[in-house]
Amino acid sequence: MTAGLATFRRRLTLTAELVAFPHTIFALPFAFLGMILGAGGLPSLWQLLWITIAMVGARTAAMAFNRIVDRRIDAANPRTMARPLPSGRMDTGWAAAVTSASILLFLWASWMLRPLCLALAPLALAIVLGYSWTKRFTWLSHMALGLALAIAPVGAWIAVGGPPSWAPILLAAAVLCWTSGFDIIYACQDVAFDRGHALASIPARFGVRTALRLSSLLHAIMMLALLGVAGAADLGWPFLAGLAIASMVLVHEHRIVKPDDLSRVNVAFFTLNGWVSVIIFLTALVDLILRRQG
Fold first, then answer.
1. Would you state the pLDDT for residue 294?
2. Do the domain assignments include residue 54?
3. Which CATH number covers residue 205?
4. Burial of residue 228, with CB atoms counted within 10 A of its CB: 0-12 exposed, 13-18 middle, 19 or more buried
């Protein structure tokens, strides 16, 4: 029994590593932003619970599926060969079980929210799972990943019964540009590998210098879209202050990653982008709370 418990704990640890669970922070704050904007403030605890479960389920399914699809590519790449599947520390069957369970969890959460959420769930799954194949045929794969994250705030808006508005559409556009931008930065690490293995990416297609410029442009468009969200959702100075702070974080992100020095890509990708999403969500939340009190 002790050995079985130890094996189960090891599998849980490997599963968290497989799906990079701490990185859920990238998408969750923007989903929560769509939720509070759609609800006009804090939603019910029931809605918060099931939106969170839906997000975790969808993201876990997408990440586990991606690792299965890319396991042979990851095994050939020195940067990724130590991941659980290519290293042999986890078998494909367990990863497939994690994927299946996460899909069921997402469908269950969608059913618990609204009939419309359940009806749209297969489309959402097609988008988040389909991304895994795109790098094999298009350098627009970064935008496919952006779309996978961009549907989260729209889904949360729908889940709380948000009224028709441009706000969720503009928010989705912002998330698409934000995600695409930081994924381009991340892909700069694998230019030589991608070119050698016929994998498509913007850095591999256009070079690192041009890729970083496109990333900067996408993040500028992101901020413009968020200004549009402020107008559409009638957000005030707290949210605008948050956008200013997030803009400075993004500027710093682009300053520390240079075409001839990619040593700080992980800081830009993981740490700084996590701060961007959290800052934007928290300042929007403060804005809505102050508006209600006023």
1. 60
2. no
3. 1.20.120.1780
4. middle
